[in-house]
Design goal:
Chain A is mainly alpha-helical and about 180 residues long. Helices cover about 75% and strands about 0% of the residues of chain A. In chain A, about 35% of the residues are buried. Chain B is an all-alpha fold and about 280 residues long. Chain B has two domains: about 70-105, no CATH class; about 105-270, no CATH class. Chain B starts with a helix and ends in an 18-residue tail after the last helix. Classes of the chains: A mainly alpha (about 180), B mainly alpha (about 280).
């Protein structure tokens, strides 16, 4: 959505306009879902994150101001925090004891095999990337944010995001090629 | 930032800017994008909740904006109301002075006039009642004394000339009020000491110095008792506070004193008001 149009839609929604609300939901809900699904890997959780993000938007829309960070950055920062909260909650309950360091190292061959079996090679590949590189790729190509908004969500400068993006794609490609050759 | 990183970013933004060195990475990015492009569920329920929530929130906004305005207005009115009754020395008194300067509340001179009129009326009534109903007379006298206290505080805000006249009037009225209190106190004491006989007190000599000079029934405090105090038939009951032949109203606090307050705007223009002579 073009920035000028997005601003108008957000303003109209803040005034209670149903059409603007519908437009925002239809435009961003699929992207939020894709981002959360890529992060969590579970459709039900992804749906919850997307729904909760809109609930937070509804609650805080009055307070949202266009100061530096745009609406998209705000939206995906909410979603990103919700994902982190969900993962922390799961970790606390012992459902997922994988630490961030272990995630950075990547899945074991056995885990990779399971992922392949259920058709989630991509998830497996992304899991092998360092967390910040993975986050850049998901915000850029699942959420559809540009470099600037990705930087706002991650609290990094746009230049730093470009560097991360470059290295992430190099790493991803390096991991894809052996799989392609093997297949 | 190194050149390939910027070149990659430009290529990702615009396919026409793809250069040879970043082609593999752009392809990896497109591949990733394609794989991540899963279809989201309809989420009709969440959609409806969001849309209706936005609409409802929009309706709520007006009262949220209105509330501070209403609260502010109420505060101003409350402040104004409180300030209207403030006296010198009160924390809120400066507000009252400002309000008086723009005509929102009575000026000190107008307030003084009002207090002195009220005090005069009550004292006159007290004097009329002192024999028939000492307790009511005392109540009226005490009320008058309270008003005179307020008036004395206000005097500081008047001009020097007005203050002199006002203080003189206040002193006269205090004297009259004190006389009533003394009279009813003595009456009560005598009553209790003599077994209730009260006919002798005040029924004979009419002490003009007490200044019961008001024959005007214009009692603006609505006290019905005052009307009875001028009933000549009451003389038989021994009230000595009212003599129909009495034309000496020049005791302290009498109307002549009020007339002295010429500088208090038109304080004396209401000659038919309480405390004026018939």
């Amino acid at each position: 959505m073009e920035t000028g149009l997005l601003k108008r839609e957000v303003r109209r929604a803040a005034r209670g306009d149903r059409d603007a609300a519908a437009s925002l939901f239809d435009h961003y809900h699929p992207r939020l879902y894709r981002y959360a699904l890529a992060k969590l890997g579970r459709p039900a959780d992804a749906e919850d994150v997307a729904a909760e993000t809109f609930a937070r938007v509804l609650r805080d829309l009055d307070r949202f101001r266009w100061k530096g960070a745009g609406f998209e950055a705000w939206l995906f920062r909410i979603a990103s925090n919700l994902v982190v909260d969900l993962v922390r909650h799961e970790n606390r309950e012992g459902a997922d004891e994988v630490t961030e360091e272990m995630e950075a190292v990547g899945p074991t061959p056995e885990q990779l095999a399971i992922y392949r079996e259920i058709g989630r090679e991509l998830d497996a590949l992304l899991e092998t990337l360092p967390p910040d590189q993975r986050e850049v790729l998901l915000l850029r190509f699942a959420a559809g944010l540009d470099t600037e908004d990705t930087g706002r969500v991650m609290d990094r400068r746009a230049n730093a995001i470009r560097q991360l993006q470059f290295r992430a794609l190099q790493n991803l490609r390096a991991r894809i090629e052996p799989q392609v050759e093997a297949s | 930032m190194t050149r390939p990183e910027k070149a990659l970013d430009q290529a990702l933004r615009d396919e026409r800017k793809v250069t040879a060195d970043v082609v593999p990475l752009v392809e990896a990015a497109r591949d990733l994008e394609e794989r991540l492009d899963t279809e989201a569920p309809a989420s009709a329920r969440e959609r409806a909740i969001f849309i209706e929530g936005v609409a409802a929130r929009g309706h709520r906004r007006r009262p949220r904006l209105l509330a501070p305005v209403l609260a502010g207005t109420a505060l101003v009115f409350l402040l104004g109301f409180a300030a209207g009754a403030a006296l010198p020395g009160d924390a809120i008194y400066p507000v009252r002075k400002v309000m008086a300067s723009v005509g929102l509340v009575a000026s000190p001179a107008e307030e003084m006039r009002s207090l002195l009129r009220g005090a005069t009326t009550r004292i006159t009534d007290a004097e009329a009642l002192q024999s028939r109903s000492p307790s009511r007379a005392r109540t009226q006298a005490f009320a008058a004394i309270g008003m005179l206290e307020d008036a004395a505080q206000l005097a500081g805000d008047l001009s020097a000339q007005q203050r002199g006249s006002a203080n003189e009037t206040i002193a006269g009225l205090r004297e009259r009020a004190a006389a009533v209190v003394a009279f009813v106190t003595n009456t009560t004491e005598d009553d209790s000491g003599s077994g209730g006989g009260s006919s002798g007190r005040g029924s004979g000599d009419d002490d003009d110095s007490s200044g019961p000079g008001s024959g005007d029934d214009d009692d603006d405090d609505g006290d019905d008792d005052s009307s009875g105090s001028r009933d000549d038939s009451d003389d038989s009951s021994g009230t000595g506070s009212r003599n129909d032949d009495d034309d000496d109203n020049s005791g302290p606090g009498s109307d002549d004193d009020l007339d002295d307050l010429d500088d208090l705007d038109d304080l004396d223009d209401d000659s038919s008001g309480p405390g004026s002579d018939d």
